[in-house]
Write a structure and sequence with these properties.
Endonuclease, Chain A; 18% strand; 3 domains; globular; alpha/beta; 499 residues
Length: 499
């Protein structure tokens, strides 16, 4: 923890130095204050026009627009430093290049396409998000991290060729220690082991040079998007994915990170409600390409991804459609939110949702309330015990319009719900890492798995039913905040997209 505090202090100091240097220049030329103000006002106006022209979501860009118009000098400096990383970051440029290259590996099988070409949800994912749909899969759903973890260990022990591991948070403890022990043993036995973790996600859990310890064990390791004192506090564009791939045969994903609270060991927020999925079949390839794309953006390791593709035997048995998909803040598609909106807009009977954070835009609010108004049973479960109080207060502000619009919002009474789940009409579901907040929907690298007419949807629905039974339904009176809290929530909503 001390190491993490030191690193954060260094990064904050670097960020403040950038702001300070800009302000010193501003003050140094104080006698030209009128000219400087005019110049920055013009810059601010051009930035506003740029945001208006390119924005696909004004709920996200409106705070920047307001700040740029009210405080052109400070806001312009902040936007240049914080708001435009995509064009300045070498890391992000490399990822963009690799994402373009990787599309040649994501090939939709024509025979399967014929089976779903009249299905608009699946066609969107295949045609525009560019993730192939497959039918030859077996899927298991685990309603708790506690249940998934033993299965993950067993599958890791079976690895013969390679293990790919990509997680936002890795925390040394019971869970990680058991995993890394297997990874080290497998690496010694000639299995190719690659680990990728996010630097910000592991800021308080791993020391700065932990990757060197893994490399000494024979484990290849990449730290994603290192925090840099010169670049400032780059909170955006983190790798929030959770992916474990074994021999190209099996993949795990879902909400759980690799830390003890995710399997209810020493959870600080009551019972930790999370989930995971295990996929075996053609769909594993989508996860493999996602991992290799990210890996090769940092280390040009692989000339041909197909060497890691396992060829499954063709089966006449059909178990619905399975589509693992990725969300990238660097392309034109807002895949995660679009999939959520498609499920909501086409639901006929019910839609149940799990999300730890409820910080949504007007499009999502309108879609949820419109579904409720047309008679769909819309239910959302959020945490009963918050992990971040300010974020929780912000989430509560979105409960009011939802409840007024007929949406049923529940608080998970036993503790914290970290799962990210949509399930609708017994036929459609998605499970993954994508929270209903600005960071997940617009700023982070995420992943999910979409299911349609797959047996596992029954288990997901059962989990939703059981979770709702343990949760408290929020009344309209309870959702309405008093004046001071409402004003505080309004301020938080204004700055939420910038956080």
């Amino acid at each position: 923890m001390l190491m993490a505090i030191k690193r954060m202090i260094i990064v904050i100091c670097g960020f403040l130095l950038q702001i300070g240097f800009s302000l010193i220049l501003y003050l140094f030329f104080m006698k030209y204050i009128a000219i400087i103000h005019i110049i920055y006002s013009i810059i601010g106006l051009f930035l506003v026009l740029y945001l208006i022209k390119d924005s696909r979501n004004y709920s996200y860009t409106l705070p920047w627009i307001i700040l740029l118009l009210l405080f052109p000098v400070i806001a312009s400096l902040l936007y240049i430093i914080l708001g435009n990383n995509k064009k300045r970051s070498k890391t992000l440029k490399r990822i963009v290049e690799e994402e373009k290259k990787s599309k040649k590996y994501l090939i939709q099988e024509e025979e399967i396409y014929k089976e779903f070409r009249d299905n608009s949800r699946l066609r969107y994912i295949s045609d525009f998000a560019h993730f192939p749909v497959s039918t030859n899969n077996d899927v298991d759903y685990y309603s708790l991290g506690d249940l998934a973890f033993p299965v993950m260990l067993e599958e890791l022990k079976k690895a013969q060729k390679f293990i790919f591991f990509e997680y936002f948070i890795v925390h040394q403890g019971t869970m990680w220690n058991q995993i890394v022990e297997i990874l080290e043993e497998k690496a010694k036995n000639g299995v190719e082991v690659r680990v990728l973790y996010d630097d910000l996600g592991c800021l308080t859990t791993l020391h700065k040079n932990y990757y060197k310890e893994l490399e000494k064990k024979g484990i290849q390791c990449i730290v994603f998007n290192r925090l840099n004192p010169i670049a400032g506090i780059i909170m955006n564009n983190r790798d929030h994915r959770k992916i474990l791939i074994i021999d190209g045969k099996v993949a795990f994903s879902g909400g759980i990170n690799i830390a003890d609270e995710y399997i209810n060991i020493n959870s600080p927020y009551g019972h930790w409600k999370d989930n995971a999925i295990r996929v075996s079949g053609e769909a594993v390839w989508n996860y493999t390409v996602l991992f290799l794309t990210m890996w090769n953006a940092f280390k040009k390791t692989d000339k041909d991804f197909f060497q890691y593709k396992y060829e499954f035997k063709k089966s006449k048995k059909k178990n619905g459609f399975v589509v693992p998909y990725g969300e990238s803040p660097l392309d034109e598609e807002i895949t995660g939110e679009d999939i959520y909106l498609n499920i909501i807009n086409q639901a006929n009977h019910y839609i149940y949702i799990f999300t730890p954070y409820l910080i949504i835009d007007t499009d999502m609010i309108n879609a949820l309330t419109l579904a409720a108004k047309r008679g769909v049973d819309v239910r959302i479960v959020i945490p009963g015990i918050p992990d971040k109080k300010i974020v929780y207060t912000l989430s509560e502000s979105y409960v009011t319009p939802l409840v007024k619009g007929g949406v049923k919002v529940y608080k998970y009474t036993p503790g914290f719900i970290h799962a990210k789940v949509f399930v609708a009409d017994d036929t459609v579901a998605t499970v993954g890492t994508i929270n209903m907040d600005y960071r997940s929907l617009y700023l982070h690298f995420e992943c999910g798995c979409y299911f349609e007419k797959v047996d596992v949807i029954k288990k997901i629905k059962m989990d939703a039913d059981e979770t709702i039974k343990k949760s408290h339904l929020i009344s309209q009176k309870e959702a309405s905040a008093k004046f001071l809290k409402a004003m505080w929530q309004a301020i938080l909503r204004l700055i939420a997209p910038l956080m």
